[in-house]
Amino acid sequence: KASIEQWLEAESQSFNPPSSILLFQLALAPRMNIPQDEGLIKQNKEKLVKVLDVYDRRLGESRYLAGDEFSLADLSHLPNSQYLVGGTEVKELFMSRDNVGRWWEEISSRESWKKVVEMQNSPPS
């Protein structure tokens, strides 16, 4: 449990800030006809690289962030990562790291997550 809380804290304090900015700048701003801030993109890619390097080391020691079982610590990374890996140049930051790439492929291919993505992509009825 302590490890789950530790990685949730890492997500909220270290992963979420740069990933949220990149999500907005790379995925949402173009759709909203808002100019992208290249300086902000560069700065937050650099921050995300550092976080992903820490994650890659951790994921070399265990299958998931908080151990060998999927947990809320992994789940909390799915929303922002889905947009970043699915449709932006940030995909390479994830996939160029063996352990992060493996982890991403595994957590994003879970049936429950694929169902969430499918529901998000379905037109409202």
TrEMBL record:
Gene3D superfamilies: 1.20.1050.10. PROSITE patterns: GST_CTER. Keywords: Transferase. It comes from the Eukaryota. One of its GO terms (biological process) is toxin catabolic process. Its EC number is 2.5.1.18. GO terms for cellular component: cytoplasm. One of its GO terms (molecular function) is glutathione binding. Residues 1-125 form the GST C-terminal domain. It catalyses: RX + glutathione = an S-substituted glutathione + a halide anion + H(+). Signal peptide: none annotated. Belongs to the GST superfamily. Phi family. This is glutathione transferase. It comes from Opuntia streptacantha (Prickly pear cactus). The lineage of its organism: Eukaryota, Viridiplantae, Streptophyta, Embryophyta, Tracheophyta.
